[in-house]
Amino acid sequence: MKKYYIFSAVLMLFIISCVKQPSEPVDDNTNIGKTGAFILCEGLWKMDNSTLDRFDFASNSIINDYYGKSNTGLRLGDLASDVVVFGNRTYITVSSAHTIEVMETSTGKSLGRIIYSETGFPRKICVINDSIGYVTDQYRHSISKVNLKTLTIILDSLPVGPAPEGITAYNNYLFVANSGFGDYMATVPKAGTVSVIDITTNQEIDELKNLPNVIEVLVNKKSGKLYVGYLNLPSLTDSTGGIAEFDLNTLDETRRWKFKASSITLSSTGDSLFFFKDSTVSLLKLNDANPQPQLLFKNPSSSDMWYSLSYSPYNNSLFIGNAKNFQVNGSLLIYSLSDLLNPKVFQTGINPNKIVFF
Amino acid sequence: MKFNFFNHLFYFLKYCRTFLAFAYFLILFGSSAYSRNEGDKDSVKTKFPEIVVTATKLNKSPGTEFSAYSTITKSELTKLVAVQVSDVLQFIPGVFIKNYGGMGGFKNLSLRGTTAKQTILMIDGIRINSTQNGMSDLSIIPIDMVNEIEIVRGGNSALFGANAIGGIVNLITRSSDTVSFITGKLNYGSYDDFHAAINSKFISLKGEIDGSLEYLSSKGNYKFHVTDFGESKILNRENADFENLSFSISLNSRPSDLNYSIKGIGRISDRGTPGAVTQNNVENAFARLKEKELIILGTSSLLINDNQIINLTSLFKVNDYHYKDPLLKWYSPNGLDEIFTNRDFQLSSKYSYKNQRLLTEFNIEGGYSDIRGNMLQPGIGNYKKRSSLGIAGRIENSFGIFNESDFTCQLGLRADIFSDAGNAVSPLVGIVYNTVSLPLKFRLNYAYNFRPPNFNEMYYLNYGTANLVPERSHSFNLGFSTGIISNTTIEMETFLISTKNQIISVPNSPVQWSARNYGEVQTKGLEIRLLSSLFEKIINFQLAYTLQEAIDKSSESPTYGMLIPYVPQELIAGSIDYNLQGFILGLNFQYSSYYYTLPGNSLNNLMPSYTILNAFVSKNVELSGTIIELRIDCNNLFDSQYSVVWKYPMPGRLIKGRISIKI
Lengths: 358, 663
Fold this sequence. Notes:
The complex is a heterodimer of chains A (about 350) and B (about 675).
Chain A: H1 2-18, E1 36-41, E2 51-56, E3 61-63, H2 66-70, E4 80-86, E5 89-94, E6 99-104, E7 110-115, E8 122-127, E9 132-137, E10 142-147, E11 152-159, E12 164-170, E13 173-178, E14 193-198, E15 203-208, E16 214-220, E17 225-230, E18 242-247, E19 253-258, E20 261-266, E21 272-277, E22 280-285, E23 294-298, E24 306-312, E25 317-322, E26 329-336, E27 339-350, E28 352-357
Antiparallel strand pairs in A: 1-2, 1-28, 2-3, 4-5, 5-6, 6-7, 8-9, 9-10, 10-11, 12-13, 13-14, 14-15, 16-17, 17-18, 18-19, 20-21, 21-22, 22-23, 24-25, 25-26, 26-27
Chain B: H1 5-15, H2 17-36, H3 41-47, E1 68-72, H4 74-79, H5 86-89, E2 95-99, E3 107-111, E4 119-123, E5 126-127, E6 148-153, H6 157-160, E7 167-172, E8 181-189, E9 193-203, E10 207-218, E11 223-228, E12 231-236, E13 242-253, E14 258-272, E15 277-278, E16 281-282, E17 288-303, E18 308-325, E19 336-354, E20 358-373, E21 383-401, E22 405-418, E23 423-435, E24 440-451, H7 455-459, E25 471-482, E26 488-509, E27 512-534, E28 539-552, E29 570-580, E30 583-592, E31 595-596, E32 606-607, E33 610-623, E34 626-635, E35 643-645, E36 648-649, E37 654-662
Parallel strand pairs in B: 4-7
Antiparallel strand pairs in B: 1-6, 2-3, 4-5, 6-7, 8-9, 8-37, 9-10, 10-13, 11-12, 13-14, 14-17, 15-16, 17-18, 18-19, 19-20, 20-21, 21-22, 22-23, 23-24, 24-25, 25-26, 26-27, 27-28, 28-29, 29-30, 30-33, 31-32, 33-34, 34-37, 35-36
């Protein structure tokens, strides 16, 4: 009889050893690869719920609220508007919190922040080098110059046009989109223009005109062209916005396409410009003699609002931030340009408004 | 999802053990008291009609006995030391006040999980909701002129017209006092909360004059906790100061065949409107709102004979609204400067015929409203007007059954036409079953209700949508009330409200929203109200319990099936006071379960539950016919840190003193 007990005990031990021991799931950020994308989710105004998600190419997975998980007790705040990666530093403008949050790219650890006065509203940031950046201040109708090493503001308020949005740089020149905030300040001087500012003197040397409600500015270094996205005025229901192309050396307008376009992004080769057009993703083949917008694919859901678009240089795909109805958690859609029929979907925070790669 | 009463009962049993234990004790206690009177059945019969404690039948709005109906009497208003209407409404089941904090914070009423726009606020039976935004801010309505408050829960558009989806709140101003008096009150408390009021009534052989003058002010600079950049700190609420000066005067005829009354209410207010407290920021930190308002109400009734009466009512209301926020620089380089003037005229006549069992009413109502302002859509200009016509009829008939019970039913129908906001036909059916042998009354009510879009929803700059249609809503109510326990009234209601074409704000972007006929919302629930007076009113007790669930039923919404924001599933409020030799010691509390603040029901936007306990002690002294009341209140006794609206902190402990003199 005793041997039966021993046999039973051994058998039980064997069976138990085959059963995987349950372990408490941990949020482990250590096994992520070096390349990835940050998805900035601006949240909702007055809700204090902006987040930063991280997509990892190696594991093909997403970490929601990567900033919050990497920095216990910290949050981004209200209305995170822009994110830029520069080497191992990532800069996030948080408009309502009047801050630029500085984060180590590889670990997500907070390195500190630049804090503006309570009247400041940092909107978009352009990093010139590891020590200098320029930021549009939407409420003070100005830009500021910041020291990214000491995290201080060098020049608080350089006047530009009303309600500046996008900002970019080429050689020693800054390009600032003076939106005028649609109809609200459409009649204010410089509304609907792009200010061209000499970085060495911080003086405006020129302005690009006839760009009502201009939002985006994008430099194509490979072709030496500037692409400007404008939305036109909401009250002008019979006309649409469009994309204008300027020669960066002469500042002359070279081409213009009139249609409702937003979230312009360039391919890594610089020969294709992707954008949202109505409820589609379309492209312009810039090297064509007379390029016309070509439909790539449609938004399959009428209730989803696609809110941000970025071309991924790592896997030749388009990353789309889907804000859904702007009130619930959004999603990241990844459309491979070699397989547009099978997008990958990942949940994000509320209102994914900017996607950048590192 | 079908309405499952037993699910509610299960939740009720699960979460309300304490309440049940107390109710059980009360029933046992009351039953013994009732059994002592059992031999004297006549006395039981004579007590029963007063189901609503101290309600005055003269004031009761017609047709309301078919619905969930509650009143707050003058003595309760005094006992709860109300300085704002919102202070007392939360002791009624189904009521949730969306409170932005402090005396000057906006206080919007939600009845049965509906929105503030879906509830009618009335003064003496005349609607005063703003046609600009559909609501009435409870923080600025002068309370001292109010003698009694009627609350009818559930939809009743056939009786009350537009916006009666969640219910109505009727502020009755006419005092039932039969002798002239003057009353003066002074309240002063933490954060420089100040309230002073004079109220008087003079009675002559020709008529009565009522008047009140009231001043409210507060610095609103209470402390609250925040965590910014990982560091916890304590801040003061800034820009929350508030001033409100109001008066009312009314001339009333002495009771005769021809009665008339004219009332004027004026108000001027100035307040800071601080916004959400987010990280390193307070929205609208310099924003201010100045308002002026004048309301003139006229009522008259002509008793033709014992069976026929004609009532005429009229309203003129004008509201000047000036909102300024110098920091909102996207509107203009100088910020936002918003100016509106909103005017309303209403004229209504009602003919009633009543014989022994049958009541017939016919009502015709005309309205005209307009708005002038600098923040209307570009195609509108700066002026928009609206006219409306409503025609309604109602029949109420009662039948006796076996001489032991009464059975009363009503049928009502109302048609409304608006010049710019669509049309609506609103039927109503109600039944009341009233037993005589037992003090027990059952009621069943169904109504199809509506709410037209307001001016803001249709025409406000970059928000309004001109082609909106009225919201439509089915409302069911089944309830009973009983006085089977001596000196105790128990009311219990179940309800279902299903609203289609609900007008909600839909974001076009995270910072820009527009109004759309988008939502479909279903709210269902259970309400219990218990009122009890023990030991010859030495101890008075009341409890209001609400269990409800408001669900998004919009078929294409990503939040289909999820809870609607700002509708707590459970609300409990109660008060108890102990009276002895002129001293009154009282305690009251309010509890709200958690709720979501965004439609996605994300844990990130979960508002935690809270319980607030308040206490007071008062002493009444009578000197040569002058009644003096001295009182000390402590609100939020345990200094709870909580919010009702996301990121809008509420005040902590508040101590205030009061002296009141009545001559």
